[in-house]
Specification:
This protein is mainly alpha-helical and 704 residues long. The chain is built from 36 helices and four strands. Helix 9 runs antiparallel to helix 10 and helix 14 crosses helix 17.
């Protein structure tokens, strides 16, 4: 009927009054006929420009379509006609909030509240806007008023708790999270944030309860595992058996914890698979004590559960081994207190045991013993750990002092540059990189510095070794750098073109010596992660379209095995090689076209197999760069016939041949050989991909 009436009015618009158009528009909106409703409101306004309800309702339609400018315009017209309708002010505030014009939003909400001070939702929205303006005290007042008017709105309690937590008013935060949980017991983040707040107060057992509830809601969120594990680790550090007994008693006699302010929350027995899954996750994260506690809880629910019993025995054995390693390493440090490597290894063991305070102290001791060392190059996660532990300023001041005392240093300046980069002080980082480059070049080629050094000549790399990872890139870069016509970068890898591109080209150029175009010198870098990153190829071509690229490819089986052991040394992997490979092969078997839910599997950063599917990367680079700018080497040739291989490399780079007295294999791993069974399995998987590569490049690699 409304549709017919609308069509009739299109033919005879004079048949209806402004109020009839207003009524028809509301009816049309019930049936989602927005275009027709807008036309009716506009016709009503032609008949009566002072019809504030039509302006307001148009604003509501445009808000629903997220056309905020039109919404704002119509709300303002509604207010101009009827300034006493509070809801127009409220809706105008929401529109301003959606385009992040917070001051205007706050002003509109305050106007609405002057007209109608009993509207909880307006106080709620006002609180949100004030939070975005960092006016936390006023936001607290607004949220509290919203709760006073409508106490059942759980999300306001949660937001109020978040502000209290940010202001370090932890007890009020706990009470507010508790209220939010009472009103909505299914909202994950109230439990999670409550647990975080309790951790700050070192109320470990209550934090554990909160994170267990969060885990019940979402068992796959890694942050929950880490926080829960941390709370359990802290609680059990002084006495693991006592902590196990504490939680076992609760499982046997479930009741609210007497010491807890969140009395409605208590640990309740779950099915064994709950404890098995949680224990497995904690074990994979090296949260040994936490996993042991959880496995023991599972055995309280079902004694002699075979899988839990087996996992617990394996874990206790592994923890005992680590405890013995810790004792041995501490003895070694005591015997050789000046050896920085021993301190670093001790820090690694503390890290594995989740004793982070001890780990960071030990790592800093190692750095103090040997500041002139590529700390953040060799151990790329160390800087992140220093930041996470709140020790960045201490380490920054350490390297500032070192560089002032030893202005000829190289790695101390580079390390300082990395720290300054992490703080966002890129200009200072650039100056330190340039100083490191000057000092390094002066050591290697003093005549070049004397005759040619001028920072105005910065022009970037002539060559880039783009991959493949664990295929000999370190040795290749080192052999190239020993040619007297090569002035090397300050370090082998910059990671600029895929990871640090937002740092800017000047930051990147600071890693290279400034070489005049007229001189017969070249420079370059080697970041093996570039190969698997298609975006890096596009970026490099856009800035340096004539740069020469080198790729060294190794038998993908050996490459995977080498990467695995490298990850072990970096504490990034704790599974057996067989477990890691079988897990990856299982993903591929289930969905060989789109593994891992449709992600581009071959570009995932942690996999062992994917990085060896070289054809998937090479073809993308050659779709951007001409073939003559890409030299592809067989990794095995670099060590079996280095003179011949390097002659080919120098010819490609336009340099005279330069033979070394020794071709040392750099960055070699030391580990046992791969089993015949696993080698055969991997060989069968890689063979068709290797064949595709050989056909594409018209080159034989003859990998077994």
């Amino acid at each position: 009927a409304a549709s017919c009436w609308y069509k009739a009015l299109n033919l005879k618009p004079e048949w209806a009054t402004d109020l009839e158009y207003l009524k028809l528009a509301k009816t049309l909106l019930k049936y989602q006929l927005k275009k027709e409703a807008i036309a009716c409101y506009e016709q009503a306004l032609k008949l009566n420009p002072n019809l504030s309800q039509a302006h307001h309702n148009l604003g509501e339609i445009y808000s629903g379509e997220e056309n905020w400018q039109e919404a704002i315009l119509n709300y303002q017209k509604a207010i101009q006609v009827n300034p006493k309708f509070s809801w127009s002010h409220h809706s105008l505030g929401k529109a301003f909030a959606n385009i992040q014009q917070w001051e205007k939003a706050i002003s509109s909400y305050e106007q609405a509240l002057q007209l109608n001070p009993e509207t909880a939702v307006t106080y709620h929205c006002l609180g949100d806007a004030l939070v975005n303006q960092k006016n936390l005290d006023a936001a607290i007042t607004a949220y509290q008023k919203a709760i006073e008017l409508q106490p059942e709105i759980w999300v306001v309690h949660h937001k109020l708790a978040n502000i209290f937590q940010e202001k370090e008013e932890l007890e009020p935060a706990i009470l507010a999270y508790h209220q939010a949980i009472q009103l909505n017991p299914d909202f994950l983040w109230s439990y999670y944030s409550l647990g975080e707040t309790l951790i700050k107060l070192q109320r470990w057992n209550e934090a554990v309860v909160a994170f267990l509830y969060a885990f019940k809601i979402n068992q796959d969120l890694s942050n929950i595992h880490e926080k829960l594990g941390y709370a359990l680790e802290q609680q059990s550090q002084s006495n693991l058996p006592e902590t196990i007994n504490y939680y076992s008693q609760i499982i046997q006699n479930p009741q609210p914890q007497k010491s807890s302010t969140i009395k409605e929350l208590s640990i309740q027995p779950e099915a064994p698979k709950f404890y098995l899954k949680l224990g497995n996750v904690l074990r994979q994260k090296n949260l040994f004590n936490a996993a042991i506690i959880i496995y023991n809880l599972g055995l309280q629910v079902q004694q002699n559960h075979p899988e839990i019993t087996n996992k617990l025995a394996q874990l206790e054995n592994k923890k005992n081994q680590l405890d013995q390693e810790l004792t041995n390493c501490q003895n070694t440090v005591n015997k050789n207190p000046k050896n920085f490597r021993h301190h670093y290894q001790l820090g690694n063991i503390f890290f594995k045991l989740q004793r982070f305070d001890k780990a960071i102290t030990t790592y800093i001791n190692a750095i103090q013993l040997k500041p002139e060392y590529p700390w953040f190059f060799f151990y790329s996660n160390l800087l992140n750990f220093i930041i996470k532990q709140g020790k960045l300023q201490q380490v920054l001041e350490l390297f500032q002092n070192i560089t002032q005392e030893n202005q000829d240093s190289i790695w101390s300046y580079i390390n300082l540059g990395e720290i300054l980069t992490a703080t966002g002080n890129l200009d200072a980082a650039i100056k330190n990189y340039q100083t490191a480059s000057y000092n390094k070049t002066r050591q290697l080629n003093p005549s070049f510095v004397k005759n040619h050094w001028n920072l105005q000549n910065a022009r970037g790399p002539n060559f880039i070794i783009i991959g493949a990872q664990k295929s000999g890139t370190t040795s290749l870069e080192n052999y190239i750098a020993q040619n007297p016509h090569v002035i090397p970068a300050i370090k082998k890898e910059t990671h600029f073109w895929y990871r640090d591109f937002n740092k800017g080209i000047n930051w990147y150029l600071a890693h290279f010596p400034p070489i005049p175009k007229s001189e017969n010198f070249i420079t370059g870098e080697a970041t093996p992660n570039y190969l698997e990153n298609h975006q890096a190829a596009e970026r490099i071509y856009n800035v340096f379209p004539e740069v020469k690229l080198l790729v060294i490819l190794r038998n993908p089986i050996d490459r995977a095995f080498s990467q695995y052991h490298h990850w072990i040394r970096l504490n990034w992997e704790d599974r057996s090689f067989e477990t890691a490979i079988n897990s990856e092969l299982e993903i591929l078997r289930k969905n060989p076209e789109k593994p891992e839910g449709g992600k581009n599997y071959w570009q995932q950063p942690g996999n062992y197999i994917g990085r060896g599917i070289y054809i998937e990367f090479i073809n993308k680079w050659l779709a951007i760069f001409p073939r003559e700018q890409l030299l592809i080497l067989k990794g095995e040739d670099l060590y079996e016939k280095p003179v011949e291989t390097m002659k080919q490399v120098f010819e490609f780079l336009g340099l005279p041949e330069h033979q070394l007295s020794e071709y040392r294999k750099l960055n070699p791993g030391s580990y046992s050989s791969i089993s015949n069974e696993m080698r055969q399995r991997l060989s069968e998987y890689f063979q068709p991909h290797n064949q595709r590569l050989e056909e594409y490049l018209e080159t034989q690699f003859n990998w077994e």
